[in-house]
Amino acid sequence: MKKTKLNTAVVILAAVMTALSFTNLFNFKINGEPLKLAGISVIVGIIAYFTTRKTNDDKNEGLDIKKFPGGLKNKTVILLFLLIIITNVTCFVIAKLWLPAYVEHILARAGDFLDFGNVLKLILELVVFALGEEIAWRAFFQKQTSKIMPFVPSLILTSVLFALGHFSFGTPVVVFYDLLFVFIDSLIYGIIFRKTDNAWLSFAAHFLANLLSTVLFCSI
C-alpha cells in the first residue's frame, strides 16, 4: 500500500511538472509583468525527487556524489562533455553571423534570473539553477518516466518539456532557434545521466554549457 501511494505521488508530481512547463506558452501577467510559472516545475521536481526516492532501489540513486569521479573516467561521458562545448560554440557562432537578434533574446531571457553585474553571484546562480534542473528533470522526471517507457521516448519527452520551460516570447525564428539548442543540450544531459545514473555528472555538463554560453554572449 505504501509503495502504491509513492507510485501515485510520482505520477501526480510528474504531471504537475508537465503542466507547469506548458505555462510559458501562455502570456500570464500580474501587474503587467510576465508570470514565469514554468520555473516552479524545477522546485516541484526537486521536492519530488527527495520525497519519492523510496521507489528507487537505492535512496541516493541518480544523485550519488561518490560515483562522480568514476563517471569522469567514462570515455563516452568525456566525449559528451566535448559535444556540449561544440554545440554551444556552434550556437553562438551561427547566431553571431546570421541571427544577431538571438543574442538579445537570450540575454533578455537569462537576465530575468541572473545577475550579470556580480561575477561571484552569477556563478553561484549558474550552479544552483543547473543543479536544481538536473535533480528535477534528470534524477526525478527522466529517471521515473524511463521506468514506464523506453529510454528514447523518455529522453525526448523530458527534453521537450525542459525546452518548453525555457520558452520566452519573441520573433518565431529566434524562439525556435533558442528552444532547438536547449533541446539538443537536454538530450546530451539526458544521455550523460543514462550512462552514469548520476545527476552530478549531468549537472557538471549543464553548468559547463551555461558558463560557456554566459561568457560567450557577455563578451559581445
Give the SSE string. HEEHHHHHHHH
- Rg over CA atoms, rounded to whole Å, is 17 Å
How many distinct domains? Answer: 1
Helix percentage: over 70%
The shape is globular
Main sheet properties: 2 strands, antiparallel
Instruction: Specify the structural class.
Output: mainly alpha
Give the total of beta strands: 2
| Strand composition percent | under 5%
| Sequence stretches where pLDDT stays below 50 over 5 or more residues | none
Q: Which whole number gives the mean pLDDT?
A: 90
* Order of adjacent strands in the largest pleated sheet: 1-2
Counting DSSP H or I runs of 4 or more residues, the number of helices is 9
Q: How far from one another are the termini?
A: 57 Å
Q: How does this model look, in words?
A:
The protein has 220 residues and is mostly helical. The protein has one domain. Helices cover 73% and strands 2% of the residues. It is built from nine helices and two strands, in the order αββαααααααα. The protein has helices spanning 2-22, 40-52, 68-71, 75-98, 100-111, 119-145, 151-164, 172-196, 199-218, and strands spanning 29-30, 33-34. It has a two-stranded antiparallel sheet with strand order 1-2. α6 (119-145) packs antiparallel against α7 (151-164), α6 (119-145) crosses α8 and α8 packs antiparallel against α9. The protein starts with a helix and ends with a helix.
